């Protein structure tokens, strides 16, 4: 399909630079299979879902994966995006032309790394020196890796350490937040439980590739980035049992959805999974694992807008986004949410 079919104009004032406070006060647009659009608040979720529904969350934890350093007299920026080993990460570099294989980059605070070969995704392998766990080094020298559309408008600050982390964050490894779950609070989870809505968690470490633009003119020519995920046997069993009872599985975030669909077999059963996924969902895809999706509003021409168009139909999502823009919904990572129920 032509990528320009997924384009739309977004006024800059619709881009959220801070999250709603409290988190569950964000707006929520309900998009239903009957083509209706209804304006709600995230706190309305218990009344919008059914008893027996299962919300599936991503428990990945964002690490401070953005680093600023020096290679000699040259400034170099690094955004880690994929772990390769105990001390090795793939990274996208700013001023990458100034870095050659074997160069040492000093990120300050005693944190140094040796640049390795370039990879086929445009990044460089960094091997961190010393014996301290890399996670400790990042806590000392790194910053939260805010998306480019926020970082270009304001500097990262101490508040982002908590704002850009979900209440479910447990497994270190993401360099971008599973942002649909940023809207949830303990109070909202308690209200959902009282309404008979269950929850499960899985792990998909979101990579910086999620922000890479689609440069191809046709979706067939786009190479999807890889992200590592895991669903254990017990979780898969509970999800399958819920569906066999007629309950709906509703992914909270496109990351949860992509992992569930990657782990699902042709018979609609979720299997245990521990691997990378490059699943690229565009209109025409037949969903097997999920019955709905809660997600924020995505970038034009992005793989994620293609995904929601595959779930609900491109024309319907273009209409939903036009409504959201016209009525002042806030877009992207810190923005408002939508509930898509085909």
Automatic annotation (TrEMBL):
Entry-linked InterPro entries: QueA (IPR003699), QueA_dom1 (IPR042118), QueA_dom2 (IPR042119), QueA_sf (IPR036100)
Gene Ontology cellular component annotations, sorted alphabetically: cytoplasm
Catalytic activity: 7-aminomethyl-7-carbaguanosine(34) in tRNA + S-adenosyl-L-methionine = epoxyqueuosine(34) in tRNA + adenine + L-methionine + 2 H(+)
Enzyme Commission no: 2.4.99.17
Enzyme class: transferase
UniProt keyword list: Cytoplasm, Glycosyltransferase, Queuosine biosynthesis, S-adenosyl-L-methionine, Transferase
Main location, first listed in the record: cytoplasm
Location of this chain's protein in the cell: Cytoplasm
Family: Belongs to the QueA family.
Subunit structure: Monomer.
Purpose of the protein: Transfers and isomerizes the ribose moiety from AdoMet to the 7-aminomethyl group of 7-deazaguanine (preQ1-tRNA) to give epoxyqueuosine (oQ-tRNA).
Protein name: S-adenosylmethionine:tRNA ribosyltransferase-isomerase
Organism: Sphingobium herbicidovorans (strain ATCC 700291 / DSM 11019 / CCUG 56400 / KCTC 2939 / LMG 18315 / NBRC 16415 / MH) (Sphingomonas herbicidovorans)
């Amino acid at each position: 399909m032509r990528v320009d079919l997924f384009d739309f104009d977004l006024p800059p004032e619709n881009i959220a630079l801070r999250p709603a406070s409290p988190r569950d006060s964000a707006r929520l647009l309900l998009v239903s299979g009957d083509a209706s659009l209804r304006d709600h608040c995230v706190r309305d979720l218990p009344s919008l879902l059914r008893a027996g529904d299962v919300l599936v969350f991503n428990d990945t934890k964002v690490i401070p994966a953005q680093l600023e350093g020096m290679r000699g007299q040259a400034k170099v920026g690094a955004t880690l995006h994929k772990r390769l080993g105990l001390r090795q990460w793939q990274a996208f570099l700013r001023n990458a032309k100034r870095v050659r294989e074997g160069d040492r980059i000093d990120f300050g605070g005693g944190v140094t790394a040796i640049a390795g070969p370039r990879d086929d995704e445009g990044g460089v392998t960094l091997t961190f020196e010393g014996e301290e766990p890399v996670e400790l080094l990042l806590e000392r020298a790194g910053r939260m890796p805010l998306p480019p559309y926020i970082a270009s408008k304001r500097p990262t600050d101490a508040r982002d350490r908590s704002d850009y982390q979900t209440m479910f964050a447990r497994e270190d490894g993401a360099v971008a937040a599973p942002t649909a779950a940023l809207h949830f609070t303990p109070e909202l989870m308690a209200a959902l439980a009282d309404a008979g809505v269950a929850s499960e968690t899985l792990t998909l470490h979101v990579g910086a590739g999620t922000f890479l633009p689609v440069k191809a003119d046709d979706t067939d020519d786009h190479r999807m980035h890889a992200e590592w995920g895991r669903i254990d046997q017990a979780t898969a069993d509970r999800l399958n049992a819920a569906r066999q009872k007629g309950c709906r599985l509703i992914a909270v975030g496109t990351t949860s959805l992509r992992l569930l669909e990657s782990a699902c077999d042709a018979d609609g059963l979720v299997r245990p999974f521990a691997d990378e996924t490059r699943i690229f969902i565009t209109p025409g895809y037949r969903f097997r694992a999920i019955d709905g999706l809660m997600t924020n509003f995505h970038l034009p021409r992005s793989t994620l807008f293609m995904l929601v168009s595959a779930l609900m139909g491109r024309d319907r999502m273009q209409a939903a986004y036009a409504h959201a823009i016209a009525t002042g919904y806030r877009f992207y990572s810190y923005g408002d949410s939508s509930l898509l129920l085909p």
